[in-house]
Amino acid sequence: MSKRKAPDNADNLNSDLSDFLIELANYERNVSKNIYKYNAYRKAAGTLAALSYRVKNGEEAKKLPGVGEKIAKKIDEFLQTGKLQKLEKINADGISAPINLMTRVSGIGPSKAKELVDAGIKTLEDLRKNQDKLTHHQKIGLKYFQDFEQKIPREEVRRLETSLKSVIANLDKEYILTICGSYRRGKDESGDIDVLITHPKFTSESMDAKNKGGMLKNIVKHLEKEGIITETISIGNTKFMGVCRDPAESSKPFRRLDIRVTPSDHYYCAVLYFTGSDLFNKNMRAHALKKKFTLNEYTLKHLTLEGLPGNAELITSEEDIFSKLGLPYKKPEERNS
Ligand code: 8GT
Ligand code: MN
Ligand code: MN
Asked: CA 159 to CA 177: how far, in whole Å?
């Protein structure tokens, strides 16, 4: 995954408000570790960022989805004073800012960030001197800190898609490669590149963990040989995390690359999952449970009366998943929240 950022709506008329809400959200996630509040602030920020008009006061904001009494009050305080007491305090406490900074390093989560700050490690400079305290992933996150903070323009993902497709077609013409994530949702910029690969002859029946692992390792080996993959963060049987850059574009930053391989009978559940957004996935799974189904990145299954998953439904398109759940189909571009 990549770290969640503020909604990137260029013509956000409430950007000052959605920005302070995102700051509060990050504080809740990184310092308080209160995911409930984190999600609440994020939802409110998303609502405000998507508005086509400027919010005038808290009272008005309270009518919007995800904005309650407390957030409305903060909006009033911010509109009247240009700042927020709570954020002023947070920024002056000496630990919240460095904890937030540490979590911007790929691979460092809130717990690790706190551990580092408690040990007096508060800057990137400090981190560089204490690499013995970091995992392989975190060291790579530090090495490419500036690169990974830069968003990837859609055009660059599109060109990389072409390169990736041509390399893996040389391995086997039948491979199917789909770039999912924010790119598939039509975003102008992405935080990383999420690649899903399947093959019509590989099914969950015909392919055991070792087969899949062999397939993924072979693909990665070839992408390394072509100079596209430059580092491996981790690689298992179905999931690769690493770093890439198209050798034809060596002036560009290095990019975070995620690759998943999936058997073809799991492909559409995998595409749905890997396309996200994560919030959209969460809501869809919750809806599935209400309809007595369980949905994950592999399959859609009916729940029995005892609440146990039954046999996997036959799924031959993303539309199938929506219709079996009694939902109108949503195109990837409509799955941004
Ligand atoms: P981005 O432009 O910031 O990369 O936005 P994104 O493409 O929507 O986010 P992502 O973090 O790359 O995740 C894309 C999808 O991959 C998510 O919707 C989620 O279903 C799936 N996903 C993983 N691993 C993880 C993970 O560790 N955390 C999260 N949040 N999502 C994950 O495959
Ligand atoms: Mn990702
Ligand atoms: Mn992504």
From this structure: 14
